[in-house]
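thought: fold this chain, then report.
action: predict
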Amino acid sequence: MTESPQRNRPDSPGSVTGGDDGRQSQFSKRGGGAPATRGRTTIADGVVEKIAGMAARDVVGVHAMGSGISRTFGAVRDRVPGGSKSVSRGVKAEVGESQAALDLEIVVDYGVAISEVARDVRENVIAAVERMTGLEVVEVNIAVSDVKLPDEEDDEDESESRVQ
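observation:
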């Protein structure tokens, strides 16, 4: 004896068994289907870049993000009234429907193991992006563009004003 699949199962969501005669009637929720399946969500590249930038900066040993030129322009932009610090500096994201790929450019502090910092950045970025966006991160490429020496001045530090 084989069992045939039931089309209207009384225990399925949205189904109600009605009447004394054993008939089943099905009531569905307005809009047809679960709320999570109604529509599409798109995530902009800039959103993923900001998440990755924040996650990378949280790693011990990362001094700054971006190349020397982008940090210089960023420092100037930060000093302009109304300007804000760019958390996505040094991050480039390519976002598809279900996957993301990231390229990061970092400056590390002198004395840290670069391979360990890169590994920690990669792990932190992947965890943050996947948790917050639901996208699968397929790769995180890290370019170390500089090492911050202890006696070097920061490009981003406020310099002493010449005028009092």
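thought: worth noting. Helices lie at 45-57, 68-79, 114-133.
final: tokens above.
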